[in-house]
Amino acid sequence: MAEPLWWLTKDGDKDCLELYERHYSAYKYADGRKRTQFVGPGEKVVLRTANADALFAWRKFIDDSGQQGINCAVFRNEGIHQSSELIRQADKIADCLWPDSRHYTYVNAQAIRSTNPGFCFLQAGWKRCGMTKGGLLILERPAV
């Protein structure tokens, strides 16, 4: 079994906020105000590595798109750990907190450099399951 890589933290963790701000999906306020949190409303769990070089946030909320389950609100890895291993470990944490729940995320293929959008999630056992009306790729890991 791999060494646990994630530490629990909170929405608003300053190191994680910096990682979030470098993520392609980081929301920028039109009025220029500084954010103090980054996950959004709902039930949430924020994970970080010991060196704060990776961030993963789970969020359970009523998704306007109709998706059901636990949402990976943000994942960013700037560290040495393989992204797919970080995702697998984050999945295990979510499985403990929300048993029998589907995991899903959105990927904006136009906003990333990869020729295989979501590859790290696919390597972690996730599958492509469609597109949103706005053109985002939907990836999922069905409930186990």
Secondary structure elements and pairings:
Elements: E1 7-9, H1 14-21, E2 43-48, E3 54-60, E4 70-77, H2 83-97, E5 103-107, H3 119-123, E6 127-131, E7 137-141
Parallel strand pairs: 4-5
Antiparallel strand pairs: 1-2, 2-3, 3-4, 5-7, 6-7
Descriptive notes:
19% of the residues lie in helices and 27% in strands. It has a 7-stranded mixed beta sheet with strand order 1-2-3-4-5-7-6, with helices on both faces. It contains 3 helices and 7 strands. The chain has helices spanning 14-21, 83-97, 119-123, and strands at 7-9, 43-48, 54-60, 70-77, 103-107, 127-131, 137-141. Strand 2 and strand 3 (54-60) form a beta hairpin. The mean pLDDT is 93. It starts with 6 loop residues before the first strand and ends with a strand. The chain is α+β, with helices and mostly antiparallel strands and 144 residues long.
Task: Based on the model shown, name its key terms.
single chain; 144 residues; alpha+beta; 3 helices
β-strand percent reads: 25-35%
**Main sheet summary:** 7 strands, mixed
The spatial strand order of the largest sheet comes to 1-2-3-4-5-7-6
Total beta strands: 7
Helix fraction?
10-25%
Question: How much is the radius of gyration in Å?
Answer: 14 Å
Termini separation comes to 19 Å
